[in-house]
Amino acid sequence: MKFMRIGTRPDNFYTQQAVRTTLSDLPSDLTICVNNVTYLLHKFPLLPKCGLLQRLCSDSSRFCVELHDIPGGEDAFELCAKFCYGVTIDLSAHNFVQAISAAKFLQMTESVDKGNFVSKLEAFFNSCILQGWKDSIVTLHTTGTLPEWSENLGIIRKCIDSIVDKIVTPPSKVRWSYTYTRQGYARKKAGPPKDWWTEDIAKLDIDLFRCIINSVKLSNKLPPQLIGEALHVYSCLWLPKSSSRLDPETSTTATVNKKKRQLLETIISMIPEDKGSVSTGFLLRLLSLAKLLRVSTVMEAQLIKKCSLQLEDATPNDLLLLSSIDLVKAVVDSFMIRWTGPNDLVTKVGQVVDSYLQIVARDANMPLHKLVSLAKALPRPQHDNLYKAINIYLKEHPKTTKEEKKQLCSVIDCQKLSAEVCAHVVKNSRLPLRMVVQALFFEQDGKPTATNESKLQTQPYNRHKSNRQVGSGEESSVVHSTRQKVQPESKHKSRRKKVVENGREILMESRNTGIQTGEVETGEARGEAVVARHGGGRQALVASHGGGGGRQALVASHGGGGVLRMVTCRWKETIFEDG
Question: Low complexity bias located where (predicted)?
Fold first, then answer.
Protein backbone atom coordinates (compact mmCIF):
# COMPACT_ATOMS: atom_id res chain seq x y z
CA MET A 1 0.00 0.00 0.00
CA LYS A 2 1.10 3.52 -0.76
CA PHE A 3 1.68 6.33 1.73
CA MET A 4 2.64 10.01 1.64
CA ARG A 5 5.12 11.61 4.03
CA ILE A 6 4.79 15.34 4.71
CA GLY A 7 7.01 17.55 6.85
CA THR A 8 10.66 17.46 7.84
CA ARG A 9 10.80 18.31 11.53
CA PRO A 10 10.97 15.63 14.22
CA ASP A 11 7.87 14.89 16.25
CA ASN A 12 8.09 17.14 19.35
CA PHE A 13 4.56 16.59 20.67
CA TYR A 14 4.47 15.03 24.11
CA THR A 15 2.08 14.48 27.02
CA GLN A 16 2.59 16.16 30.41
CA GLN A 17 0.06 15.74 33.19
CA ALA A 18 -2.74 14.77 30.81
CA VAL A 19 -1.96 17.72 28.54
CA ARG A 20 -0.51 17.51 25.02
CA THR A 21 2.04 20.20 24.13
CA THR A 22 5.19 20.77 22.08
CA LEU A 23 8.81 21.37 22.89
CA SER A 24 9.33 25.09 22.34
CA ASP A 25 11.14 28.01 23.84
CA LEU A 26 8.01 30.10 23.44
CA PRO A 27 5.20 29.85 25.93
CA SER A 28 1.83 28.54 24.75
CA ASP A 29 -0.67 31.21 23.76
CA LEU A 30 -3.49 28.99 22.51
CA THR A 31 -5.40 26.28 24.33
CA ILE A 32 -7.50 23.90 22.28
CA CYS A 33 -9.75 21.29 23.89
CA VAL A 34 -10.77 18.25 21.85
CA ASN A 35 -13.02 15.84 23.75
CA ASN A 36 -11.01 14.86 26.85
CA VAL A 37 -7.64 16.05 25.57
CA THR A 38 -6.21 19.55 26.08
CA TYR A 39 -3.58 20.97 23.73
CA LEU A 40 -1.24 23.83 24.70
CA LEU A 41 -0.13 25.22 21.34
CA HIS A 42 0.83 28.45 19.58
CA LYS A 43 -1.14 30.78 17.34
CA PHE A 44 1.59 31.60 14.84
CA PRO A 45 1.84 28.14 13.13
CA LEU A 46 -1.88 27.27 13.37
CA LEU A 47 -3.81 30.40 12.44
CA PRO A 48 -2.16 31.04 9.03
CA LYS A 49 -3.32 27.63 7.79
CA CYS A 50 -6.68 27.16 9.63
CA GLY A 51 -9.52 29.38 8.47
CA LEU A 52 -11.75 28.23 11.32
CA LEU A 53 -9.21 29.14 14.01
CA GLN A 54 -8.68 32.53 12.36
CA ARG A 55 -12.35 33.27 12.76
CA LEU A 56 -12.59 31.92 16.31
CA CYS A 57 -9.48 33.78 17.47
CA SER A 58 -10.25 37.08 15.78
CA ASP A 59 -10.71 38.47 19.27
CA SER A 60 -7.12 38.68 20.51
CA SER A 61 -8.26 38.18 24.08
CA ARG A 62 -9.50 34.70 23.39
CA PHE A 63 -6.95 32.00 24.22
CA CYS A 64 -9.11 28.86 24.63
CA VAL A 65 -11.03 27.12 21.84
CA GLU A 66 -13.21 24.03 22.13
CA LEU A 67 -13.36 21.72 19.11
CA HIS A 68 -15.35 18.78 20.46
CA ASP A 69 -17.24 18.24 17.19
CA ILE A 70 -14.19 17.94 14.93
CA PRO A 71 -14.52 14.77 12.78
CA GLY A 72 -11.98 12.12 13.71
CA GLY A 73 -11.52 13.47 17.24
CA GLU A 74 -8.17 14.22 18.82
CA ASP A 75 -6.18 11.93 16.50
CA ALA A 76 -7.36 13.76 13.38
CA PHE A 77 -6.80 17.16 14.99
CA GLU A 78 -3.26 16.24 15.94
CA LEU A 79 -2.47 15.29 12.33
CA CYS A 80 -3.60 18.75 11.23
CA ALA A 81 -1.69 20.45 14.03
CA LYS A 82 1.52 18.59 13.18
CA PHE A 83 1.14 19.60 9.54
CA CYS A 84 0.96 23.24 10.64
CA TYR A 85 4.10 22.83 12.76
CA GLY A 86 5.94 21.11 9.89
CA VAL A 87 6.32 17.86 11.85
CA THR A 88 6.78 14.72 9.75
CA ILE A 89 3.52 12.79 9.33
CA ASP A 90 2.69 9.67 7.29
CA LEU A 91 -0.62 9.56 5.43
CA SER A 92 -2.12 6.37 4.04
CA ALA A 93 -5.46 4.78 3.24
CA HIS A 94 -5.87 4.00 6.95
CA ASN A 95 -5.92 7.63 8.15
CA PHE A 96 -6.83 9.52 4.99
CA VAL A 97 -10.57 9.84 5.73
CA GLN A 98 -9.96 11.21 9.23
CA ALA A 99 -7.28 13.62 8.01
CA ILE A 100 -9.22 15.13 5.13
CA SER A 101 -12.43 15.39 7.16
CA ALA A 102 -10.63 17.27 9.96
CA ALA A 103 -8.78 19.47 7.45
CA LYS A 104 -12.05 20.39 5.78
CA PHE A 105 -13.56 21.12 9.20
CA LEU A 106 -10.65 23.44 10.09
CA GLN A 107 -10.89 25.06 6.62
CA MET A 108 -7.30 24.26 5.68
CA THR A 109 -7.89 25.09 2.02
CA GLU A 110 -6.00 26.84 -0.77
CA SER A 111 -8.03 30.00 -0.22
CA VAL A 112 -6.49 30.30 3.25
CA ASP A 113 -2.91 29.35 2.38
CA LYS A 114 -1.23 28.10 -0.76
CA GLY A 115 -0.17 24.43 -0.63
CA ASN A 116 -2.46 23.80 2.30
CA PHE A 117 -3.33 20.45 3.81
CA VAL A 118 -6.57 19.79 1.89
CA SER A 119 -4.95 20.20 -1.52
CA LYS A 120 -2.13 17.81 -0.60
CA LEU A 121 -4.62 15.24 0.69
CA GLU A 122 -6.74 15.46 -2.47
CA ALA A 123 -3.68 14.99 -4.65
CA PHE A 124 -2.70 11.89 -2.65
CA PHE A 125 -6.23 10.53 -2.91
CA ASN A 126 -6.48 10.93 -6.69
CA SER A 127 -2.97 9.87 -7.64
CA CYS A 128 -2.32 7.07 -5.16
CA ILE A 129 -5.37 5.74 -3.32
CA LEU A 130 -7.77 5.57 -6.26
CA GLN A 131 -5.09 4.01 -8.45
CA GLY A 132 -4.53 1.15 -6.06
CA TRP A 133 -6.77 -1.85 -5.40
CA LYS A 134 -6.26 -2.45 -1.70
CA ASP A 135 -5.83 1.27 -1.02
CA SER A 136 -9.34 1.89 -2.35
CA ILE A 137 -10.72 -1.04 -0.34
CA VAL A 138 -9.14 0.15 2.92
CA THR A 139 -10.18 3.76 2.39
CA LEU A 140 -13.75 2.69 1.65
CA HIS A 141 -13.75 0.54 4.77
CA THR A 142 -12.61 3.46 6.98
CA THR A 143 -15.46 5.64 5.72
CA GLY A 144 -17.65 3.73 8.14
CA THR A 145 -16.26 5.83 10.99
CA LEU A 146 -17.31 9.08 9.30
CA PRO A 147 -20.09 8.13 6.84
CA GLU A 148 -21.67 11.58 6.49
CA TRP A 149 -18.39 13.38 5.89
CA SER A 150 -17.24 10.65 3.48
CA GLU A 151 -20.48 10.87 1.53
CA ASN A 152 -20.45 14.66 1.35
CA LEU A 153 -16.80 14.77 0.27
CA GLY A 154 -17.48 12.19 -2.48
CA ILE A 155 -14.99 9.70 -1.06
CA ILE A 156 -17.43 6.74 -1.03
CA ARG A 157 -18.61 7.21 -4.60
CA LYS A 158 -15.10 7.67 -5.99
CA CYS A 159 -13.78 4.60 -4.15
CA ILE A 160 -16.68 2.44 -5.34
CA ASP A 161 -16.16 3.56 -8.95
CA SER A 162 -12.47 2.78 -8.72
CA ILE A 163 -13.12 -0.67 -7.22
CA VAL A 164 -15.76 -1.57 -9.82
CA ASP A 165 -13.49 -0.49 -12.67
CA LYS A 166 -10.84 -2.88 -11.41
CA ILE A 167 -13.32 -5.73 -10.84
CA VAL A 168 -14.51 -5.66 -14.45
CA THR A 169 -10.94 -5.51 -15.75
CA PRO A 170 -10.01 -8.74 -17.60
CA PRO A 171 -7.97 -10.99 -15.28
CA SER A 172 -5.09 -11.00 -17.75
CA LYS A 173 -4.65 -7.27 -17.18
CA VAL A 174 -4.64 -7.37 -13.38
CA ARG A 175 -1.29 -6.04 -12.16
CA TRP A 176 -2.05 -5.19 -8.54
CA SER A 177 -1.86 -7.38 -5.45
CA TYR A 178 -5.01 -9.05 -4.09
CA THR A 179 -6.01 -11.54 -1.42
CA TYR A 180 -6.91 -15.07 -2.47
CA THR A 181 -6.69 -17.83 0.12
CA ARG A 182 -8.99 -20.47 -1.36
CA GLN A 183 -7.82 -24.04 -0.80
CA GLY A 184 -6.45 -25.88 -3.79
CA TYR A 185 -5.42 -22.74 -5.65
CA ALA A 186 -1.82 -22.18 -6.63
CA ARG A 187 -0.73 -19.02 -8.35
CA LYS A 188 0.26 -19.80 -11.91
CA LYS A 189 1.72 -17.87 -14.79
CA ALA A 190 -1.66 -18.07 -16.51
CA GLY A 191 -2.85 -15.17 -14.38
CA PRO A 192 -5.24 -14.57 -11.52
CA PRO A 193 -8.55 -16.46 -11.20
CA LYS A 194 -11.75 -14.85 -12.39
CA ASP A 195 -12.95 -14.34 -8.82
CA TRP A 196 -9.69 -12.78 -7.59
CA TRP A 197 -11.58 -9.76 -6.17
CA THR A 198 -14.17 -11.52 -3.98
CA GLU A 199 -12.18 -11.91 -0.75
CA ASP A 200 -11.03 -8.30 -0.53
CA ILE A 201 -14.47 -6.74 -0.94
CA ALA A 202 -15.92 -9.27 1.52
CA LYS A 203 -14.23 -7.32 4.32
CA LEU A 204 -16.51 -4.33 3.72
CA ASP A 205 -19.71 -3.40 5.50
CA ILE A 206 -22.84 -4.95 3.96
CA ASP A 207 -24.13 -1.59 2.66
CA LEU A 208 -20.86 -0.82 0.89
CA PHE A 209 -20.64 -4.40 -0.37
CA ARG A 210 -24.17 -4.13 -1.79
CA CYS A 211 -23.29 -0.88 -3.59
CA ILE A 212 -20.31 -2.55 -5.27
CA ILE A 213 -22.29 -5.65 -6.27
CA ASN A 214 -25.13 -3.57 -7.71
CA SER A 215 -22.67 -1.47 -9.69
CA VAL A 216 -21.00 -4.61 -11.05
CA LYS A 217 -24.41 -5.99 -12.07
CA LEU A 218 -25.26 -2.78 -13.91
CA SER A 219 -22.01 -2.97 -15.87
CA ASN A 220 -23.15 -6.29 -17.46
CA LYS A 221 -19.50 -7.26 -17.86
CA LEU A 222 -19.38 -10.24 -15.48
CA PRO A 223 -21.39 -13.50 -15.53
CA PRO A 224 -23.91 -14.05 -12.71
CA GLN A 225 -21.84 -16.98 -11.41
CA LEU A 226 -19.10 -14.56 -10.34
CA ILE A 227 -21.67 -12.42 -8.53
CA GLY A 228 -22.90 -15.56 -6.81
CA GLU A 229 -19.36 -16.50 -5.80
CA ALA A 230 -18.86 -13.07 -4.22
CA LEU A 231 -22.06 -13.56 -2.21
CA HIS A 232 -20.87 -16.99 -1.12
CA VAL A 233 -17.50 -15.66 0.07
CA TYR A 234 -19.18 -12.80 1.92
CA SER A 235 -21.70 -15.06 3.69
CA CYS A 236 -18.95 -17.48 4.74
CA LEU A 237 -17.15 -14.58 6.41
CA TRP A 238 -20.09 -12.89 8.14
CA LEU A 239 -22.83 -15.50 8.65
CA PRO A 240 -22.64 -18.46 11.05
CA LYS A 241 -21.63 -21.64 9.25
CA SER A 242 -24.23 -23.78 11.01
CA SER A 243 -27.08 -23.59 13.48
CA SER A 244 -24.68 -24.61 16.26
CA ARG A 245 -22.96 -21.23 15.87
CA LEU A 246 -26.15 -19.34 16.73
CA ASP A 247 -26.38 -18.04 20.26
CA PRO A 248 -29.49 -18.87 22.31
CA GLU A 249 -32.20 -16.23 22.09
CA THR A 250 -31.75 -13.87 25.04
CA SER A 251 -32.16 -10.16 25.55
CA THR A 252 -28.44 -9.75 24.96
CA THR A 253 -28.29 -11.76 21.73
CA ALA A 254 -31.59 -10.46 20.32
CA THR A 255 -29.88 -7.41 18.84
CA VAL A 256 -27.06 -9.52 17.42
CA ASN A 257 -29.48 -11.96 15.81
CA LYS A 258 -31.48 -9.06 14.41
CA LYS A 259 -28.35 -7.75 12.65
CA LYS A 260 -27.62 -11.24 11.33
CA ARG A 261 -31.19 -11.50 10.06
CA GLN A 262 -30.92 -8.16 8.24
CA LEU A 263 -27.58 -9.21 6.79
CA LEU A 264 -29.05 -12.51 5.58
CA GLU A 265 -32.05 -10.82 3.99
CA THR A 266 -29.74 -8.40 2.16
CA ILE A 267 -27.64 -11.27 0.79
CA ILE A 268 -30.76 -13.12 -0.37
CA SER A 269 -32.03 -10.02 -2.15
CA MET A 270 -28.76 -9.74 -4.09
CA ILE A 271 -28.80 -13.30 -5.50
CA PRO A 272 -29.06 -13.08 -9.30
CA GLU A 273 -32.22 -14.45 -10.87
CA ASP A 274 -30.21 -16.60 -13.27
CA LYS A 275 -30.44 -20.32 -12.48
CA GLY A 276 -27.10 -21.71 -11.33
CA SER A 277 -25.66 -18.33 -10.35
CA VAL A 278 -25.12 -19.82 -6.88
CA SER A 279 -24.81 -23.46 -5.87
CA THR A 280 -27.75 -25.43 -4.52
CA GLY A 281 -25.80 -26.19 -1.36
CA PHE A 282 -25.31 -22.48 -0.72
CA LEU A 283 -29.04 -21.81 -1.20
CA LEU A 284 -29.97 -24.63 1.19
CA ARG A 285 -27.56 -23.30 3.80
CA LEU A 286 -29.13 -19.86 3.51
CA LEU A 287 -32.59 -21.43 3.85
CA SER A 288 -31.57 -23.22 7.05
CA LEU A 289 -30.23 -19.98 8.53
CA ALA A 290 -33.33 -18.11 7.36
CA LYS A 291 -35.53 -20.50 9.32
CA LEU A 292 -33.42 -20.23 12.46
CA LEU A 293 -33.09 -16.45 12.29
CA ARG A 294 -36.82 -16.09 11.55
CA VAL A 295 -36.63 -14.03 8.39
CA SER A 296 -39.85 -12.73 6.88
CA THR A 297 -42.29 -15.23 5.38
CA VAL A 298 -41.96 -13.64 1.96
CA MET A 299 -38.18 -13.92 2.03
CA GLU A 300 -38.35 -17.55 3.17
CA ALA A 301 -40.81 -18.43 0.39
CA GLN A 302 -38.56 -16.72 -2.14
CA LEU A 303 -35.59 -18.75 -0.96
CA ILE A 304 -37.54 -22.04 -1.02
CA LYS A 305 -38.49 -21.32 -4.63
CA LYS A 306 -34.85 -20.66 -5.57
CA CYS A 307 -33.82 -23.94 -3.94
CA SER A 308 -36.52 -25.93 -5.75
CA LEU A 309 -35.56 -24.54 -9.16
CA GLN A 310 -32.19 -26.29 -9.00
CA LEU A 311 -32.96 -29.14 -6.59
CA GLU A 312 -31.72 -31.69 -9.14
CA ASP A 313 -28.18 -30.38 -8.58
CA ALA A 314 -28.30 -31.02 -4.83
CA THR A 315 -26.53 -33.84 -3.02
CA PRO A 316 -27.68 -35.71 0.11
CA ASN A 317 -25.12 -33.75 2.12
CA ASP A 318 -26.62 -30.53 0.78
CA LEU A 319 -30.05 -31.55 2.08
CA LEU A 320 -28.48 -32.30 5.45
CA LEU A 321 -27.62 -28.60 5.69
CA LEU A 322 -31.31 -27.94 6.32
CA SER A 323 -32.23 -27.81 9.97
CA SER A 324 -35.22 -30.18 9.67
CA ILE A 325 -36.89 -32.71 7.40
CA ASP A 326 -39.86 -30.33 7.21
CA LEU A 327 -37.73 -27.86 5.24
CA VAL A 328 -36.67 -30.61 2.85
CA LYS A 329 -40.35 -31.47 2.36
CA ALA A 330 -41.16 -27.81 1.66
CA VAL A 331 -38.46 -27.61 -1.02
CA VAL A 332 -39.58 -30.89 -2.62
CA ASP A 333 -43.21 -29.75 -2.64
CA SER A 334 -42.17 -26.50 -4.34
CA PHE A 335 -40.24 -28.52 -6.90
CA MET A 336 -43.25 -30.74 -7.66
CA ILE A 337 -45.52 -27.71 -8.10
CA ARG A 338 -43.26 -26.35 -10.83
CA TRP A 339 -42.15 -29.66 -12.34
CA THR A 340 -43.64 -30.38 -15.76
CA GLY A 341 -40.91 -32.61 -17.15
CA PRO A 342 -38.67 -34.15 -18.26
CA ASN A 343 -39.00 -37.41 -16.32
CA ASP A 344 -35.27 -37.79 -15.82
CA LEU A 345 -35.33 -34.59 -13.76
CA VAL A 346 -37.74 -35.94 -11.17
CA THR A 347 -35.85 -39.26 -11.24
CA LYS A 348 -32.65 -37.48 -10.30
CA VAL A 349 -34.37 -35.58 -7.49
CA GLY A 350 -35.91 -38.85 -6.28
CA GLN A 351 -32.48 -40.46 -6.04
CA VAL A 352 -31.17 -37.55 -3.98
CA VAL A 353 -34.20 -37.62 -1.67
CA ASP A 354 -33.95 -41.40 -1.20
CA SER A 355 -30.27 -41.12 -0.30
CA TYR A 356 -31.19 -38.39 2.18
CA LEU A 357 -33.90 -40.64 3.66
CA GLN A 358 -31.36 -43.42 4.13
CA ILE A 359 -29.28 -41.07 6.24
CA VAL A 360 -32.02 -39.52 8.38
CA ALA A 361 -33.66 -42.94 8.88
CA ARG A 362 -30.84 -43.71 11.31
CA ASP A 363 -31.94 -40.89 13.57
CA ALA A 364 -33.51 -42.41 16.67
CA ASN A 365 -35.77 -39.38 17.06
CA MET A 366 -37.02 -39.26 13.47
CA PRO A 367 -40.86 -39.33 13.48
CA LEU A 368 -42.26 -42.01 11.20
CA HIS A 369 -45.00 -39.81 9.73
CA LYS A 370 -42.45 -37.23 8.54
CA LEU A 371 -40.41 -39.94 6.85
CA VAL A 372 -43.52 -41.28 5.11
CA SER A 373 -44.65 -37.79 4.13
CA LEU A 374 -41.36 -37.00 2.39
CA ALA A 375 -41.26 -40.43 0.74
CA LYS A 376 -44.70 -39.83 -0.80
CA ALA A 377 -43.85 -36.30 -1.95
CA LEU A 378 -42.63 -37.29 -5.41
CA PRO A 379 -42.95 -40.23 -7.85
CA ARG A 380 -40.15 -42.64 -8.69
CA PRO A 381 -39.65 -45.08 -11.55
CA GLN A 382 -38.03 -47.58 -9.18
CA HIS A 383 -38.24 -48.08 -5.42
CA ASP A 384 -34.98 -49.88 -4.60
CA ASN A 385 -33.40 -46.93 -2.79
CA LEU A 386 -36.66 -46.10 -1.05
CA TYR A 387 -36.85 -49.68 0.23
CA LYS A 388 -33.31 -49.38 1.57
CA ALA A 389 -34.32 -46.29 3.54
CA ILE A 390 -37.35 -48.08 5.02
CA ASN A 391 -35.29 -51.13 5.90
CA ILE A 392 -32.74 -48.92 7.67
CA TYR A 393 -35.52 -47.22 9.63
CA LEU A 394 -36.98 -50.58 10.77
CA LYS A 395 -33.52 -51.80 11.74
CA GLU A 396 -32.76 -48.66 13.77
CA HIS A 397 -36.25 -48.56 15.32
CA PRO A 398 -36.93 -52.13 16.53
CA LYS A 399 -39.93 -51.03 18.60
CA THR A 400 -41.94 -50.00 15.54
CA THR A 401 -45.46 -51.38 15.84
CA LYS A 402 -47.23 -53.50 13.20
CA GLU A 403 -49.52 -50.66 12.24
CA GLU A 404 -46.56 -48.32 11.89
CA LYS A 405 -44.79 -50.90 9.71
CA LYS A 406 -47.85 -51.09 7.47
CA GLN A 407 -47.93 -47.31 7.20
CA LEU A 408 -44.22 -47.22 6.40
CA CYS A 409 -44.37 -50.00 3.81
CA SER A 410 -47.40 -48.48 2.13
CA VAL A 411 -45.06 -46.20 0.16
CA ILE A 412 -43.39 -49.19 -1.53
CA ASP A 413 -44.66 -50.49 -4.87
CA CYS A 414 -43.30 -54.02 -5.27
CA GLN A 415 -43.72 -53.77 -9.03
CA LYS A 416 -40.99 -51.12 -8.97
CA LEU A 417 -38.48 -53.28 -7.09
CA SER A 418 -35.64 -55.05 -8.87
CA ALA A 419 -35.33 -58.84 -8.69
CA GLU A 420 -32.44 -58.56 -6.22
CA VAL A 421 -34.40 -56.30 -3.89
CA CYS A 422 -37.50 -58.51 -4.15
CA ALA A 423 -35.37 -61.45 -3.04
CA HIS A 424 -34.22 -59.40 -0.05
CA VAL A 425 -37.81 -58.44 0.79
CA VAL A 426 -38.85 -62.10 0.86
CA LYS A 427 -36.15 -62.86 3.43
CA ASN A 428 -36.67 -59.70 5.51
CA SER A 429 -38.30 -60.63 8.82
CA ARG A 430 -38.82 -56.96 9.74
CA LEU A 431 -41.48 -56.44 7.06
CA PRO A 432 -45.20 -57.23 7.28
CA LEU A 433 -45.98 -60.72 5.91
CA ARG A 434 -48.35 -59.29 3.34
CA MET A 435 -45.53 -57.35 1.72
CA VAL A 436 -43.41 -60.50 1.68
CA VAL A 437 -46.18 -62.44 -0.10
CA GLN A 438 -46.66 -59.64 -2.60
CA ALA A 439 -42.92 -59.47 -3.31
CA LEU A 440 -42.95 -63.26 -3.70
CA PHE A 441 -45.14 -62.93 -6.79
CA PHE A 442 -42.80 -60.48 -8.47
CA GLU A 443 -39.69 -62.37 -7.42
CA GLN A 444 -40.96 -65.53 -9.13
CA ASP A 445 -42.61 -63.81 -12.05
CA GLY A 446 -39.80 -61.35 -12.71
CA LYS A 447 -40.59 -57.99 -14.22
CA PRO A 448 -44.18 -58.10 -15.54
CA THR A 449 -44.65 -57.78 -19.26
CA ALA A 450 -46.95 -55.16 -20.69
CA THR A 451 -49.61 -57.90 -21.23
CA ASN A 452 -49.37 -59.12 -17.69
CA GLU A 453 -49.48 -55.57 -16.36
CA SER A 454 -52.71 -54.92 -18.24
CA LYS A 455 -54.21 -58.12 -16.87
CA LEU A 456 -53.16 -57.24 -13.37
CA GLN A 457 -54.72 -53.81 -13.66
CA THR A 458 -58.08 -55.27 -14.77
CA GLN A 459 -58.57 -57.39 -11.67
CA PRO A 460 -60.63 -56.08 -8.72
CA TYR A 461 -57.91 -56.62 -6.15
CA ASN A 462 -55.36 -54.61 -8.05
CA ARG A 463 -57.86 -51.88 -8.86
CA HIS A 464 -58.40 -51.61 -5.13
CA LYS A 465 -54.72 -51.13 -4.30
CA SER A 466 -52.72 -51.41 -7.57
CA ASN A 467 -50.37 -53.69 -5.61
CA ARG A 468 -48.87 -50.58 -3.98
CA GLN A 469 -50.02 -50.87 -0.41
CA VAL A 470 -50.05 -54.01 1.63
CA GLY A 471 -52.41 -54.31 4.53
CA SER A 472 -54.69 -51.26 4.68
CA GLY A 473 -58.38 -50.39 4.40
CA GLU A 474 -61.34 -52.72 5.04
CA GLU A 475 -59.53 -55.90 4.01
CA SER A 476 -56.67 -55.17 6.39
CA SER A 477 -59.02 -54.67 9.30
CA VAL A 478 -60.79 -58.01 8.59
CA VAL A 479 -57.53 -59.91 8.52
CA HIS A 480 -56.38 -58.19 11.69
CA SER A 481 -59.55 -59.18 13.50
CA THR A 482 -59.13 -62.89 12.66
CA ARG A 483 -55.52 -63.31 13.61
CA GLN A 484 -54.52 -65.27 16.66
CA LYS A 485 -52.24 -64.05 19.41
CA VAL A 486 -48.65 -63.47 18.38
CA GLN A 487 -46.42 -66.51 18.86
CA PRO A 488 -42.88 -66.26 20.29
CA GLU A 489 -40.51 -64.58 17.90
CA SER A 490 -38.39 -67.66 17.16
CA LYS A 491 -41.44 -69.76 16.36
CA HIS A 492 -42.84 -66.96 14.22
CA LYS A 493 -39.64 -66.66 12.20
CA SER A 494 -39.54 -70.43 11.65
CA ARG A 495 -43.13 -70.50 10.41
CA ARG A 496 -42.49 -67.42 8.28
CA LYS A 497 -39.49 -69.03 6.65
CA LYS A 498 -41.52 -72.13 5.87
CA VAL A 499 -44.29 -70.02 4.38
CA VAL A 500 -41.88 -68.26 2.08
CA GLU A 501 -40.07 -71.43 0.99
CA ASN A 502 -43.26 -73.40 0.29
CA GLY A 503 -44.89 -70.36 -1.30
CA ARG A 504 -42.00 -70.02 -3.68
CA GLU A 505 -42.36 -73.67 -4.78
CA ILE A 506 -46.08 -73.27 -5.34
CA LEU A 507 -45.61 -70.08 -7.35
CA MET A 508 -42.91 -71.71 -9.47
CA GLU A 509 -45.37 -74.47 -10.41
CA SER A 510 -48.20 -72.03 -11.06
CA ARG A 511 -46.14 -69.91 -13.44
CA ASN A 512 -46.21 -72.73 -16.03
CA THR A 513 -49.98 -72.40 -16.38
CA GLY A 514 -50.35 -68.60 -16.43
CA ILE A 515 -51.31 -66.32 -13.55
CA GLN A 516 -54.22 -64.08 -12.88
CA THR A 517 -55.30 -62.34 -9.76
CA GLY A 518 -58.75 -61.95 -8.38
CA GLU A 519 -60.74 -62.04 -5.20
CA VAL A 520 -63.02 -64.84 -4.03
CA GLU A 521 -64.98 -64.88 -0.84
CA THR A 522 -66.92 -68.05 0.07
CA GLY A 523 -68.62 -69.48 3.12
CA GLU A 524 -67.06 -68.28 6.32
CA ALA A 525 -64.31 -66.31 4.63
CA ARG A 526 -62.27 -64.41 7.19
CA GLY A 527 -58.57 -64.78 6.22
CA GLU A 528 -56.54 -64.15 3.10
CA ALA A 529 -54.77 -66.63 0.83
CA VAL A 530 -53.16 -67.06 -2.55
CA VAL A 531 -54.67 -69.90 -4.66
CA ALA A 532 -53.51 -71.56 -7.87
CA ARG A 533 -55.89 -74.11 -9.35
CA HIS A 534 -54.38 -77.13 -11.16
CA GLY A 535 -57.07 -79.70 -11.92
CA GLY A 536 -58.76 -81.81 -9.32
CA GLY A 537 -56.54 -81.28 -6.34
CA ARG A 538 -55.34 -78.25 -4.46
CA GLN A 539 -52.65 -77.45 -1.95
CA ALA A 540 -52.92 -74.97 0.89
CA LEU A 541 -50.13 -73.39 2.87
CA VAL A 542 -50.73 -71.67 6.21
CA ALA A 543 -49.31 -68.14 5.90
CA SER A 544 -50.16 -66.58 9.23
CA HIS A 545 -52.48 -66.83 12.20
CA GLY A 546 -55.31 -64.46 12.96
CA GLY A 547 -57.77 -64.05 15.75
CA GLY A 548 -60.66 -66.44 16.28
CA GLY A 549 -58.91 -69.51 14.86
CA GLY A 550 -58.66 -68.10 11.35
CA ARG A 551 -55.56 -68.58 9.26
CA GLN A 552 -54.26 -66.99 6.09
CA ALA A 553 -53.27 -69.50 3.47
CA LEU A 554 -51.19 -69.51 0.35
CA VAL A 555 -53.06 -72.07 -1.76
CA ALA A 556 -52.11 -73.58 -5.09
CA SER A 557 -54.62 -75.81 -6.84
CA HIS A 558 -53.63 -77.94 -9.80
CA GLY A 559 -55.94 -78.14 -12.79
CA GLY A 560 -56.73 -76.89 -16.19
CA GLY A 561 -57.88 -73.47 -15.05
CA GLY A 562 -54.42 -72.21 -14.23
CA VAL A 563 -55.80 -69.36 -12.16
CA LEU A 564 -54.02 -67.81 -9.19
CA ARG A 565 -56.54 -66.20 -6.86
CA MET A 566 -56.62 -64.29 -3.61
CA VAL A 567 -59.30 -65.94 -1.46
CA THR A 568 -60.36 -65.69 2.14
CA CYS A 569 -61.00 -68.84 4.14
CA ARG A 570 -61.41 -70.10 7.70
CA TRP A 571 -59.55 -73.25 8.64
CA LYS A 572 -58.92 -74.87 11.96
CA GLU A 573 -56.05 -77.00 10.67
CA THR A 574 -53.45 -76.84 8.02
CA ILE A 575 -55.09 -77.95 4.75
CA PHE A 576 -53.70 -80.52 2.39
CA GLU A 577 -56.77 -81.91 0.63
CA ASP A 578 -57.91 -83.10 -2.76
CA GLY A 579 -60.97 -82.14 -4.77
Answer: 470-479
